[in-house]
Amino acid sequence: MRKTFLGVKLKTLREQRGLTQAALAQVLKLSPSYVNQLENNERPLSVQVLLRLQSALGVDLQFFSEDDEARLFAQLHEIVAEAGVPGGVPDAELRTLAQQMPAMAQLLLRLQSRARGAEQRLASLGMGDRDGGLTASQGPHEEVRDFFYAHHNHMDELDRAAEALSLQLDAADSTQDLAPKLEGHLLAVHRVQVQSLPEDRLRRFEPSQG
């Protein structure tokens, strides 16, 4: 199994909680020297330590998610490719940035997005460089994607509202499926009518299997 070194993330979490290394060590029932080694990437962050963080401090393990690291790495790789950096940036450095300094990686992504928007505005005024640089601003799809990535696909208020609405609709009629009840609710309360596409048109939106 691949060893996971997340010292900067652990240090960031500790400082956010206002804890010293000694205090964190006491909470996790580890030695201060062990915590120091974890933060300096001299030891990997084990599953046992992650579970202690979750149990003792209520840490959402998504904070240490490798899925987020993979996404950040891919986006950083894209930035480097678009920037045309001579010789590029080694993947090992990009992966370390995504894994150890996700806040800095997110900052770079936001700066890239702003640069795209600025270059697009300059281009619309006839002031942009037509031969180089980025010319396309971030589209709606990318904006929505990045928003949900930043919130780990979890919107607490929406989830709670959805659960409450589901209970309300079920209490009114427990014999009907949820989908038609939602359609009726949208029409009655919000005057929104749901239309279903025919099967032949739906196939156009299905991903290719080839």
Could you walk me through the main structural features you see in this protein, from its secondary elements to its overall organization?
The chain has helices spanning 7-16, 21-28, 32-39, 47-57, 66-83, 91-100, 102-124, 140-150, 156-172, 178-190, 199-202. By secondary structure, the chain is an all-alpha fold. It folds into 3 domains: 7-64, lambda repressor-like DNA-binding domains (434 Repressor (Amino-terminal Domain), Orthogonal Bundle); 66-150, no CATH class; 156-198. The longest helix is centred in the middle third of the chain and has 23 residues, at 102-124. It starts with 6 loop residues before the first helix and ends in an 8-residue tail after the last helix.
Distance between the termini: 33 Å
Question: What share of residues are in beta strands?
Answer: under 5%
Number of helices: 11
Q: How many beta-strand segments?
A: 0
The helix-strand sequence is: HHHHHHHHHHH
| Cα radius of gyration in angstroms | 24 Å
Task: Identify low-pLDDT runs.
Answer: 128-137
Structure class: mainly alpha
Helix and strand arrangement:
Layout: H1 7-16, H2 21-28, H3 32-39, H4 47-57, H5 66-83, H6 91-100, H7 102-124, H8 140-150, H9 156-172, H10 178-190, H11 199-202
Summarize this structure as a short list of keywords or feature phrases.
210 residues, mainly alpha, 434 Repressor (Amino-terminal Domain), 11 helices, 0% strand
Summarize the structure.
Helices cover 63% and strands 0% of the residues.
